[in-house]
Fold this protein.
Amino acid sequence: MNRISRNSINLLKSNYGTTWSLLLLPAMAAAVIKPPSPESTLDLLLRFLAYGIALVPLARVISILVDQLSGYLGDRYSGVVSVGLGNLVELVVSITALASGLYRLVVISVAGAVITNCLLVLGISTFVAGRREQHVQIDARSTNLQARQLMLSLLFLAVPTIFSLGKGLNPMEGTNQLDNFAVYSLVVAVMILLYYVLSFVLQLGTHRSFFSRSQDQQPLPIAAVVTVAGSNSRHGIGAILIAMLVVSSAVVLVSDPLVETLEVLLKNSPLGELFIGLILLPLFGSTAEGVISIGAAAKGRMDLAITSTLESSGQLLMFVLPMLVLLGWPMGRYLHLSVPLMALGCTGFAVVAVHWITENNQLDWYEGIQLITLYGVIVLGTLLL
C-alpha cells in the first residue's frame, strides 16, 4: 500500500510539475483573497475566470491518467474507461450546477462543449493538419460511425424539445417538482444510455474486426503528442486510480466556488446566459483535450484527432447529459431532457458542418477555416445579441 501511495505521489508530481500547474495560482489567490462587498461585475468575472482556468490543468492530468489507465486495460476496455472518465470535468461541474438549480445552464453548457469540440477544436486541428499536407485522409469506418452517432444523438434531444414546445411547457422551469415531463426525460435518458452501450457492443464485440485498426492507425498515446513528465515509467493501476481520485477531488473543490460565482455573475453581469454557458464555460474543460487533438493533427494523426473529438462530443450528448438526468433524481432536481432553441440550433449547425466536411473522408485547411468561422459567428451572436 505504501508503494502504491508513493507511486501515486510521484505520478501527480510528474504531471503537475510543469508550467500547466501555474494556471492553478489564480484560483488559489481567489480563494485566499476576500472579495470586496459589494463585488463589482469585473471582480466577479475575474474570480470566475480564475476558478475556470484552474480546471484546465486538472482536465489535462485527467486526460493523461485516462490514457495511462487505458494502456493497462487494452482496447477492449479502454472505450469504457474513456466514457466514464473522459469528460469528468464537465460532468462534475454540471452536477454542481444542477445541485444549485441552474437547469438551463447545465443543458446549455453541455451543448456548448459539443460546439467547442466540433467547431473550434476540430477546426484548428483540421487547419493545422491541412497546412502539413494538401489532402488529409481520415479513417472512413470510425469517423463515419462517430459522425452518424453525433447526428443521431442530436435528434434524441430534438424530439423531447419539440414535445415540450408542442405542449406549451417551459422545459427549464419548475424542475424541482416531479412532473410527467421529468418521468419522460428519465425514461428517454435510460434509452439513450442503453443505445450508447450497444454501440460499444458493436465496435468491440460483434463487429470488432470491421472497426479494428491496422498497426499504423493504433491510438496515439498522449505522451507522443504532448510532453508528459514521467510518461516512460509505469506506475501501476492502483497508483493511477488513487491519483485519479485526488484530481477528481480537486475538480470538486474548484467547481463549488466556480458555480457560486457563476450564480452571482448571471444575476449581475451584462454577459448573457448563452455566452457564458455556450461559449465561456466549455472552454475551460475543452482546452487541455483540444491541445492534445491539435498536437495529434500536427503529427499527421488527423484521423485519430477527429475520432477522439467526435467521440468526446458523442459522450457529452449520449452519456453526460442522460447521466445528469438520472443523478438529479436523488437530489430532487428533475432535469428535463430538452434544450433551449438557440442552443439546440447552434449545436445542430455544428454537427451538420462536421458531418458535411467528413463525408468524403478527406480534409483540407480551408475546411478548418470554415469550422472556425462558424464558431466565430456563434460567439458574436451570443455576445452581442
Remarks:
- The two ends are 57 Å apart (CA to CA).
- Residues 227-233 have pLDDT under 50 and may be disordered.
